[in-house]
């Protein structure tokens, strides 16, 4: 087993999966800024097994991104077994299972965070995935908790927690857990529950990656200090600021970090756009619109620039607006 997780220097700074954001162009930029491990956008087990070209193209990666983990969602163990095998053949360094997504279209099909309601079922999916791979590690991404269905949410006894899930899967060879410290009920708001992450770190033998609300180097240090986790996963904090990986490493080693100027932002936005064009053609520029809006956030004339950048169609448009 090539368990790359155990070979990474700590603390591990990971790019967490973000559907519609962590595509190949963005991932390579994050890698250049020092991301230690990269997660793809999540991919459907069924689509992979059925040989869906769009899904394969979506998760295609550049070898420079390695170690790259592909995240799967679905609800059928057999599909996980087969999809995991396909991912190993494609050269991924690891396979991850999504037990955290709250999106309606995923939850309505019995996937994502809704699986946490049934830890035994999660264990079946994990076991099947582990059986599907020969030589690469399996990891999972979970949330702090989810309430059981049709119950009084105010009663803690009605919640399934990350610890319940870990208890069920700890007999299986799971190499790493990324835990988003927020509940299903408050999916993206509020402070993450660092207490539950700390408890997971105490009982889980593999690598624990803490996630949620890390937007600055100071947040990163606080998360590591409060949880004792082996690493952190960055998500919304790196949209428009992929240098956060580098800043965190600088801050953890020296206590200070480099700030990035408006000129740096413009140069990176252009470099990112060129990478998107190379990977996806003109469609890559359309998809860049949201990234461009993130790059100009908090900068001079942000509102005016954003209103222009969300309409770009070509790389020339991007160059002209950023030069203006
Ligand atoms: C646009 C978007 C897409 C996401 N897609 C995924 C996904 O595909 N798989 C997953 O496990 N989590 C996904 N997440 C959750 C993030 O990985 C992360 O757990 C969450 O955003 C909390 O971290 P943050 O507070 O640093 O953003 C997504 C989040 C966002 C904002």
List keywords for this structure.
alpha/beta, 2 domains, binds flavin mononucleotide, 324 residues, 8-stranded parallel barrel
What does this structure look like?
With 324 residues, this protein is an alpha/beta fold. The chain has 2 domains: 4-254, TIM Barrel; 262-323, no CATH class. The chain has helices spanning 24-32, 45-49, 53-59, 77-90, 104-107, 119-132, 162-169, 194-203, 217-227, 244-254, 262-280, 282-295, 302-309, 315-323; strands at residues 12-15, 37-39, 43-44, 68-73, 94-99, 138-147, 159-161, 174-183, 207-211, 231-234. It has an 8-stranded parallel beta barrel with strand order 1-2-4-5-6-8-9-10, surrounded by 7 helices. Helix 1 (24-32) links the parallel strand 1 and strand 2. The protein binds flavin mononucleotide. Residues 16-21, 41-42, 71, 98, 100-101, 141, 180, 188, 211-214, 235-237 line the site of flavin mononucleotide. Flavin mononucleotide (FMN) is lined by residues 16-21, 41-42, 71, 98, 100-101, 141, 180, 188, 211-214, 235-237.
The CATH architecture of the largest domain is: Alpha-Beta Barrel
What is the N-to-C order of secondary-structure elements (H for helix, E for strand)? EHEEHHEHEHHEEHEHEHEHHHHH
Number of discrete domains: 2
Q: Can you list the ligands bound to this structure?
A: flavin mononucleotide
Q: Find the CATH superfamily of the largest domain.
A: Aldolase class I
Radius of gyration: 20 Å
Shape: globular
- Helix count equals 14
Structural class of the helix and strand makeup? Answer: alpha/beta
């Amino acid at each position: 087993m090539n368990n790359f997780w155990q070979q990474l220097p700590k603390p591990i700074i990971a790019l967490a999966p973000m559907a519609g954001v962590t595509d190949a162009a963005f991932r390579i930029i994050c890698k250049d800024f020092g991301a230690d491990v990269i997660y793809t956008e999540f991919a459907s087990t069924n689509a992979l097994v059925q040989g869906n070209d769009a899904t394969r193209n979506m998760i295609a990666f550049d070898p420079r991104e390695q170690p790259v983990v592909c995240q799967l969602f679905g609800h059928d163990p057999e599909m996980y077994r087969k999809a995991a095998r396909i991912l190993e053949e494609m050269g991924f360094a690891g396979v991850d299972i999504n037990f955290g997504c709250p999106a309606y279209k995923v939850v309505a099909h019995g996937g994502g965070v809704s699986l946490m309601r049934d830890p035994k079922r999660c264990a079946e999916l994990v076991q099947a995935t582990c059986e599907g791979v020969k030589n690469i590690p399996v990891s999972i991404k979970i949330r702090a908790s989810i309430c059981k269905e049709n119950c009084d949410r105010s009663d803690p006894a009605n919640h399934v927690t990350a610890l319940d899930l870990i208890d069920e899967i700890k007999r299986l060879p799971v190499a790493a857990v990324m835990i988003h410290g927020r509940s299903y009920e408050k999916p993206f708001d509020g402070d993450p529950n660092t207490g539950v992450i700390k408890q997971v770190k105490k009982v889980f033998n593999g690598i624990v990656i803490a996630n949620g609300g890390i937007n600055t180097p100071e947040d990163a240090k606080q998360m590591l200090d409060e949880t004792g986790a082996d690493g952190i996963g960055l998500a919304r904090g790196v949209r428009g600021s992929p240098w956060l990986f580098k800043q965190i490493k600088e801050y953890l080693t020296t206590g200070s970090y480099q700030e990035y100027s408006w000129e740096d932002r413009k140069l990176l936005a252009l470099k990112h756009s060129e990478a998107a064009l190379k990977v996806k053609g003109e469609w890559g520029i359309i998809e860049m619109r949201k990234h461009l809006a993130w790059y100009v956030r908090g900068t001079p004339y942000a509102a005016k620039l954003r209103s222009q950048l969300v309409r770009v169609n070509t790389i020339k448009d991007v160059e002209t607006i950023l030069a203006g």
